[in-house]
Amino acid sequence: MDELTAPEGFLLRPWLPADAPAVLRAFEPDEMGRQTDRPVFDLAGALVWIAERTRERGARTDYSWAVVGERGEALGCVALQDINRIHDTAWVSYWTTESARGRGVASAGVRAVARWAFRRQGLYRLELGHRTDNHASCRVARRAGFATEGIERSRLRYGRTRYDVERHARLADDAVDGD
């Protein structure tokens, strides 16, 4: 249950303390800090972030994987959160380090986590959302088989600016190429 593989050659595994430098690099851009309620500013903060992911996994409330390349370096993160066992739903989130962007890391990771969620966790519906101006996240969602469902107007606020969010979902019985 702890490790997943993606046909694209990536391994998804639990976060390790040795991944702290990659987490810190991922959170360096201001954009990342605005998108989370748990920003990381230093190596100690990265270790706390990893410890929180480990605690959530142990409690079976949320699951977060490091998406790892062939050299063992953490390239990104895919998480399954807000699991609702009454409705068999969950929220998917993802990010990659700047150097990993454009390599298919996020879409491969999201596909692997979706397979696990449907087959191993018995979930039926997975949801995700991204700002409408985040075209890269939209491509990830679509490549991972998530259908566009609509726009949530002014859903997010960063500073004084509000952003619309495009919502996507994938169902366990959706026909997705390669899954």
From TrEMBL:
The protein's matches in InterPro entries, at most eight in alphabetical order, are given as:
Acyl_CoA_acyltransferase (IPR016181), GNAT_dom (IPR000182), Ribosomal_N-acetyltransferase (IPR051908)
Q: What region holds the N-acetyltransferase domain? A: 10-170
**Gene3D superfamilies, alphabetically?**
3.40.630.30
One Pfam family this sequence matches: Acetyltransf_3
Listed name of the protein: N-acetyltransferase
Query: From what organism does this protein derive?
Result: Streptomyces rhizosphaericola
